[in-house]
Records
---
Amino acid sequence: MLSTKVTCNSHGQDSSYFLGWEEYEKNPYDEVKNPKGIIQMGLAENQLSFDLLESWLENHPQPSAFKNQKNQSIFKELALFQDYHGLPAFKNALVKFMSEIRGNTVTFDANNLVLTAGATSANETLMFCLANPGDAFLLPTPYYPGFDRDLKWRTGAEIVPIHCSSINGFKITKSALEDAYKQAEKQKLKVKGVLVTNPSNPLGTSLTLHELDLLVNFISSKNIHLISDEIYSGTVFRSPSFISIMEVLKNKNLMNSEISKRVHIVYSLSKDLGLPGFRIGAIYSNDARVVSAATKMSSFGLVSSQTQYLLSEILSDYNFTKSYLSENRQRLKERHEKLVKGLKTSGITCLDSNSGLFCWVDMRHLLSSNTFEGEMELWKKIVYEVGLNISPGSSCHCSEPGWFRVCFANMSEQTLDVAMQRIRSFVDSLAKKNMSRHQQLMNRNSRRTKSLPKWVFELSFHQRDVSADER
């Protein structure tokens, strides 16, 4: 009596990424109420700069009270029907904010912007606009686990991985792009485009100019689309600086070309401003047909007028946004360094990164076997025994076992200290167990050696003398 969409198992909810969340929700850590609970390190949320936003709201009470500069109520105006094109004031403020994040090296046209209820909605809407059911998009690995849900579940689109390796820091290569395209052809899938996150979730690295050039050349040669998900663009806290795909198009004099019409940007205020609950996402496209279709589709996931009005006032305050971006980056840098240093004291290293709300952590040396089974075994110990919810690399489709995404910006500094203490105790206990096993093995070998006949030792020494003479 139900639809196949309801009864099928294609949502991706059975991923270890989501399962870790479920375990956390059963037993959430609280410093006072539940100090032995699970600490949430699987949530890419930015809680480091809430005080800056709260301070702005205290100093500017009119917008949150839905009053204009003349202190007149505009509640009725905002509460009544608004079409799905969005408030012009907010769209203009948002495109200026996007330019500011990119150092004003590029500008954005508000007419090319479509508002959506978060980046999740933006990515799915682009899938509906660019791909038919059964068509494929190529995604470099490792990639955000939620894409298996966001891009595929309702659209019927497919994902083909572009396998990247730790040998070069998981950077995109020309051969990896070509291999993924050929793999899609073998599966009889029509490739409609490439989707990248820049900066990367889960790597915490921004794409290099070389990688971006490769992508533009690749989509040009294959006549396909490129979606650049740039929701972490404002989190780049140290060099190399962030390079938007729009900058590449501009520098290549492609801004008004046919190629530019096949390049689309996804943006959101969830990460840079730490406002995921506000559900502010956007699609930016130079293709008028995509903008028109996406605008119509946005009626199924509108952003409230009240939210748009409040944020238009915040984003229009240039002095505040400039100060916020600078301070937020500094806080992310300090918190990132604290996590990296804390893990290093336990003998755990991270991929060298410059952005994001997480680190890509190398725990390969802690695996019982260099397999994904070994990775899951370690992950379960960390969740259930250590009490930390982190995301295993396999949930991000990483082709190498032993990597984990660990978030650092969704908790207090004190909670991060507790997490590092737990990790240190866990690694120490593993080392003691390994030492104990090694000692048992040595003792066993010693007992076996003592039980051997005397002639075995004499033969062994005789063979060593012969070998020495031959050398």
---
Amino acid sequence: MTGEISSVIGGKQAAGGTDYDSINPSRVDEVVARIRLADAETFSSACRTAAAAQREWARVPAPVRGRVIASIGRLVEANAESLARLVTREIGKPYAEALGEVREIVDTCDFFLGEGRRLYGQTVPSEMPDKNLFTFRVPVGVAAVITAGNFPVAVPSWYLVPALLAGNAVVWKPAEYAAASAEALYRLFAASGLPDGVLNLVFADGAATFEGLEAALDEGTVHKVGFTGSTEVGRRIGELCGRHLQSPCLELGGKNPMVVAADADLDLAVEGALFSGFGTAGQRCTSLGTAIVHESVHDEFLGRLTRALAAAGIGDPAGDVLCGPLLDHRFASRYEEYLGWIQPHHRVVSGPTGRITAGNPRGDFTGEGGLYYHPVIVDGVRPGDRLFLEETFGPIIGVTSFSTLGEALELANRPGYGLSSSVYTTDPATAFRFREGIGAGMVSVNNSTSGAEAHLPFGGNGRSGNGSRQSGMWVLDQFTRWQAMNWDHSGRLQKAQMDVVEIVPDVNFRL
């Protein structure tokens, strides 16, 4: 065990709280860290601390804040292997994926370190003489950031880095089951020289967090909420923020479609489906939900995918495997509910289902001591099935067929999520028609539904979010507000739309 971990507010450890054990899902008897979970008052207190610290942080010149972000990037890079090993141990993510996740923090820092010199406003021409118009980006104030644990360090960086760069203070509430990874990332941020109180770390359960957030919003000490998690909880947070006339940044679930056209490179499509369906044990918001395959290649695609999955490694995430265990007991229980959605008209083509045990092994692998589950491919899903319509957070994908691109698009959009999507085709016209017709915020052509680069906008629509975007320059719209200024040096009051010189044309002129 790495020791006992508690919240950090204003640079100091918070006292009190109830115990929670973060476990290693590969060996559930191993406790990675014991967490002291805070109450609602601790969360709202952290928001008050952040509000006091934010005013001074906002006065630090933006290019200097950019240098702090650069330091964070270098610190993470220097500690990449240690941080990745901790992520693998705490949530069971294969080490290669965990190392890629840590790399994403570095990429995010590398992008935003220069944005400190590019928080551009504009000089706008006035309609009147001796008058200048300007726009400025200003920080929103305090951001309350609540993140899930399937990407325990990369996704938080999408919020923390731009929020801090823009001059905000942050109260960050990570997932309890990934607390050790979060605490390690916090320490790397703190080592960059951030003043006390600018970044605060609060460990709490969902109920205490919501109560504390509600109190902070009532007090006016939170000005932006960022949330990554389920659609159900996202709705509640959106309703709470709406009462305070705030627009949160919501990154929610997905039921991400992959359309495989008749002319697709099937080997490439299978590779993409395998990674996006079963990487991180299917526990990504961008994981493949349903493969929608043209009827002429359906059987061939399904056969190749089934064989590829059978050959893939499942097991110890420290090794070279496609996927390891589920994140935590709560996700294992929920996944078993999803397996109950398999209906008699479905055809499970991947073999056994359920937890991998000595009595239900995967080849020679018995999954001893871990939350390992058989990856599942279900053919014959229908548009009215729960398995087709709802997010299934775990290693299970559905397969169905289509005859026309219009039908494929209708199927792809039907669940009402709108996060990620993919189309495999060798026809540019099909690719562009798919892009025009899909409701997802992200589209991949001949690539998986999972995987985003740090300088592209990340986010979804519909049940996947409220249209907000993370990553790249677009996320700055979440953590800054536009301020307009007019400066009249004419020495007299000039009234807009009233004291405007009019040049009159001869509207009756004809050649």
